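Blackboard transcription, Thursday session:
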Amino acid sequence: MVIPSLSDIQTAHSRIRSFIHRTPVLTSTSLNRILGAEFFFKCENFQKVGAFKYRGATNAILSLTPAELEKGVGTHSSGNHAAALALAAAMAGVPAYIVMPHTAPAIKKAAVAGYGAHIVFCEPTQEEREKTMMKVQEETGCTFIHPYDRFEIIAGQGTAALELLEEIPTVDIIMAPVGGGGLLSGTAIAAKGLKPDIQVWAGEPQNADDAFKSFYSGELHPSINPKTIADGLLTSLSELTFKAIRENADAILLAPEQLIMDALNLILQRMKIVIEPSSAVPLAALMAGPEKHWKGKKIGIILSGGNLDMAMFASQIKPD
Amino acid sequence: MVIPSLSDIQTAHSRIRSFIHRTPVLTSTSLNRILGAEFFFKCENFQKVGAFKYRGATNAILSLTPAELEKGVGTHSSGNHAAALALAAAMAGVPAYIVMPHTAPAIKKAAVAGYGAHIVFCEPTQEEREKTMMKVQEETGCTFIHPYDRFEIIAGQGTAALELLEEIPTVDIIMAPVGGGGLLSGTAIAAKGLKPDIQVWAGEPQNADDAFKSFYSGELHPSINPKTIADGLLTSLSELTFKAIRENADAILLAPEQLIMDALNLILQRMKIVIEPSSAVPLAALMAGPEKHWKGKKIGIILSGGNLDMAMFASQIKPD
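(Written on the board underneath:)
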């Protein structure tokens, strides 16, 4: 089991850089004042399809052989990875097959269909998704692209940290949210490779704390019935991302639901940018900790995406 | 009655440029594709206090004499102008007196108080506001800074268009929302001064269509019982802004409430930036018109502010 190195991430960056947005690193004086540290936000909410996932999907597709490319790519997902793979495949001119539960929200079906992907509906269970995906692979010969359990995906996701540290090399702590661990793996490898004394921390919802348990116990824990507003972080680590994270990350901090909403509101209202709840988890995890060792530090945070479900958000916020 | 010229706006810009944010001009491929034109958004939602009002307030304060400065500035408002004047006064080290109805939302009181202004509460009627303001002026000797009926305010607001056209000189049409007319006046004077063949259009809520009536009838109409979600656009033109707009703007387009919400959602979801409803009015007005003469054109739009009331917004949006 081989995890990518810094140089694999640098190679991925050369490969994808002309296809992705170089997203801005934003700062906010008022947020710094409120929280007592100096924050640098890498805005992957402005990435194509509104999420960092476009980096990994593009790198995975551009790493295929011509014979593989011809038969296309597939995945089972209804989230940002599906949209990212669909658009990256369209850009490369190859077919994409997306297996999706028929219960997926209409807006997500429309997004993927809008990028020209073939949608294959299935019953909404993990077993049915995998069975349907296998059938599609048999019929089309397409390459299955897992959302995080893949070398090229991890290498691609690491390019966001690469750009952040190229722009702000003085960062003391770099943070990413953790779900399946693709972004955190790439971020940790890139950051430790470029700057061995940097601290790499992750934020995870307290209600989906499988990565936390895995990291501190040394044994891979599954994600059981996670219930969090950070719906991009419901998945569990794979053996591959677990290894990358154990070898390169320094800490996983937990964020309670209320602080995830508070951090989300803080970023919307102070920075005037739209992020999805998963992106607010690192900041929420900092706010949650009893010991604020991070006060006064320079902290880079990867804002993972901007696909906020407005109706869901509306149902959560409190009037003033 | 003298309105500012292009050179007054250029002078204002030299005066304030080191105190304001040079806000970015953002574009969105997907929004251009959906609407069929090329849009350039001047992001005053990222301006200090989250609104273009900081430009005019800063210019007004920096234009006072030392004797006037010493006695401070005042205004009656509970909106962006109050916050802008409070912060600009704090930056200049002079006192600010803000007359506010005691019924103003707690969050607005807190914002103004947070900038160190003296808040003077009054009953929530226009008459009481003006009476209280006069009393404060008598007691303190402060200079009353009207939110738009003032030469230096108009000149200051025009600097946003100056920056936009400096960056994108090929714009065919430039648009701003219109309420009291300070932003539209400055925008129109700057744009026509720099580029006489440019079209200057305004967007106004259909439910607050006093500027529309004034512009096309040639007589100043008051704003009577306006009811719109675009709460920054409830005021009427003054003689000064009416003159500036009649001499320099080409058209005022009306936007129905539903399209204001649709345009707001489009910008939040496609551009991942937070704007207030007033900022969505120009785009909504374009979407409303039966004839789309603007299709295929390069259109500059000033996004006036980002102080979106999340609870209000939540109560308006429809689930998918």
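Lecturer's comment: The first strand of chain A starts at residue 25 and ends at 26.
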